[in-house]
Amino acid sequence: MSEPKPGNTPEPQRLGVREFRGNMAGFLRQVREGRSFLIMSRDEVVAELRPPAAPPRPARQPGALRGKIRMAPDFDALPPDLLAAMEGEAE
User: Which domain of life is it from (predicted)?
Assistant: First the structure.
């Protein structure tokens, strides 16, 4: 699915309540693909159906955690009993 370009968003399609109710799964599938609908009752808009707004992603800042993460000196050393068990030398 491609994102619509700003300013190039198509007009929402108008649907009657009965038409929407009769094919709700199909219309929801279209919403998932980016389409929007206005649900009408007696020529009055009663609901708007559209994809949710994408939450803004914070800008990535490379190196933001530099100097804040430390590894223990024995990070890659196994305890002797675990090493013995892995090598089949367990008691």
Answer: Bacteria
